[in-house]
Design goal:
By secondary structure, the protein is α+β, with helices and mostly antiparallel strands. The strands form two sheets. It has a five-stranded mixed beta sheet with strand order 6-1-4-5-7. It is elongated and about 85 Å long.
């Protein structure tokens, strides 16, 4: 009876140790992936100062020609604001600015034109309801753009690091509990 109990304990301890080590390994891999993808984007983001923006004008751009270039075949919103005492172009996120500098807001579904147009109209109406809102700006001298929302802010970084930290902590706790259990069973066997 005693030998079967010891064998069952060893098998269970081995499985628990494997689970703990696997959790720690997954957490380390996740930290590496986040360190190579999310962290550089967070460090590259220059829009760190928060300010109050006042709406100047909004208009929807469809298929017009701007500065000799054709705007893509989808509706987009162009928003001008006053921020930090100067005129600026408002962009929804960092990615919006990188995708098309002629658009402040690009709708999510570009395949269906009426749905995209309705989405842009809804966002435009929200801007007209709230004439004053918070935005993010950079302290660069010649920068004439501000962001409505940061994709790679401190909240996104903390949210990205929460689950790997939880996984690492859980794995380490399992390993520590198994080791404590093993040392206590050795002490009990010696008495």
């Amino acid at each position: 009876m005693g030998k079967k109990l010891v064998m069952a304990q060893k098998r269970g301890e081995t499985r628990a140790l494997c689970l703990g080590v696997a959790m720690v390994a997954c957490a380390v891999i996740t930290y590496y992936i986040l360190g190579t993808t999310v962290l550089p984007l967070y460090q590259k983001s220059v829009w760190t100062q928060e300010s109050t923006c006042h709406l100047i004008e909004t208009h929807i751009r469809d298929q017009e020609e701007l500065e000799g270039k054709k705007v893509p075949q989808y509706p987009c919103l162009w928003v001008n604001v006053s921020a930090v005492g100067r005129w600026a172009v408002l962009y929804h996120t960092e990615d919006t600015r990188d995708r098309n500098q002629q658009c402040s807001y690009i709708p999510g579904s570009l395949d269906n034109y009426p749905v995209a147009r309705a989405d842009v109209e809804k966002v435009r109406a929200r801007f007209h309801e709230r004439q004053v809102f918070y935005c993010f700006w950079t302290s660069r001298e010649n920068e004439t753009s501000v962001l409505y929302q940061r994709l790679y802010g401190p909240q996104a970084l903390l949210f990205s690091l929460f689950w790997p930290t939880f996984l690492l902590t859980g794995g380490l706790l399992i390993i520590v509990m198994v080791k404590i259990n093993q040392s206590l069973s050795i002490l009990a066997a010696q008495k």
